[in-house]
Amino acid sequence: MTRKAIIVITLCLTVLVQAQEQRKPPREVWNEVFTQRQGREFPYNKFLAETIKGRKPGKALDIGMGEGRNALFLASQGWEVTGFDISDVGVKLAQEEARKRGLKLEALVEDVDRFDYGKERWDLVVGIYMHRMITRNANKIIDSLKPGGIIVIEGFHRDINGEALTGGSLGYQTNELLKAFDGLRVLYYEDTIAAADWGRQPKSPIVRFLAKRERAAGDSR
């Protein structure tokens, strides 16, 4: 190997190490995001709202709840909601807003990979703009749904060609959700260009997914 090649490789490795050192831990990244979002009003997700129309409220889990825009909406509709996020700033904002509105909300500071999802615990699981944090925990999420329970997901498609705030490619790959949740009955799947409700351009590649855990034969619950 030539001296010139060694110098180039050394410089590349140095840049890579510096980039990794500069990347902040996820909690710090999201605390900054939700600190910047304080004082602004963010509406609940429209796809989620359409999905629960006419559905009897039960126990709901909001994964990566942030400042609680969707968790608070569900609570206002009579759902018994647990939400969690790695950002203590986001969770605190959600708790304060729940108190302000007189809503019951269990808001927790938790890591998506360490959270105890439970077994047959939820009638509804929500994952809005959470991407690979949802798919890598798909089996735990499936097990946590009650028979007849549903999961509602919206996020970017990988075609957005962006980087997630905590590193790595942003968005779901084509049919990634269909493969990750193939143990559920898919009720709706959409891969489209639409307005995103999370900090992007007016039109973005969006994926929407709704699936249900089937009841076992003879289960009348």
Report on this model:
With 221 residues, this protein is an alpha/beta fold. It has a single domain, classed as Rossmann fold (3-Layer(aba) Sandwich). It is built from eight helices and seven strands, in the order H-H-H-E-H-E-H-E-E-H-H-E-H-E-E. The chain has helices spanning 3-22, 26-37, 46-52, 69-76, 88-101, 132-135, 138-144, 176-180; strands at 59-63, 80-85, 105-109, 122-128, 145-156, 185-194, 204-212. The chain has a seven-stranded mixed β-sheet with strand order 3-2-1-4-5-7-6. The radius of gyration is 19 Å and the shape is globular. Mean pLDDT is 86; it is low at 1-21.
Quick structural summary:
The chain has 221 residues and is an alpha/beta fold. It has eight helices and seven strands. The protein has one domain: Vaccinia Virus protein VP39 (Rossmann fold).
Task: Kindly list the characteristics that best describe this protein.
221 residues; alpha/beta; Rossmann fold; seven-stranded mixed β-sheet; 24% strand; disordered N terminus
Number of strands: 7
Residue windows where pLDDT falls under 50 for at least 5 positions: 1-21
Strand share of the residues?
15-25%
Please tally the helical runs, counting DSSP H or I stretches of 4 or more residues: 8
Shape descriptor: globular
